[in-house]
Design goal:
It contains three helices and two strands; from the N terminus they run H-H-H-E-E. It is of the alpha+beta class and about 90 residues long. It comes from Dendrobium catenatum.
């Protein structure tokens, strides 16, 4: 289930955080992790019409992307944080 969700986050960025959080526990999953994955699937059923669609043939198709990262900037757990923004068209 997690593999399918990881494949899906390429077009559904709204579930990226939740899926990656669940993927951390694949080595030793608990019942609570399964219920979290089921909740993600229920969310996807309710939002089937959402997604990122790229046009096949367009003369003004331009992608501009920006990213920013902070390595070990969080004082609590010393994890890296990053963010991206893409403009299409």
């Amino acid at each position: 289930m997690i593999g399918s969700l990881l494949y899906l986050i390429a077009s559904r960025r709204d579930i990226m955080f939740s899926v990656c959080l669940c993927a951390r526990f694949q080595a030793d999953p608990k019942e609570s992790h399964l219920s979290a994955v089921k909740r993600i699937f229920r969310y996807l059923l309710g939002t089937q019409s959402l997604g990122i669609w790229y046009p096949k043939h367009s003369t003004s198709f331009e992608i501009i992307g920006f990213s920013d990262s902070d390595f070990a900037g969080c004082k609590v757990d010393r994890k890296c944080t990053s963010g991206t923004c893409q403009f299409i068209g």
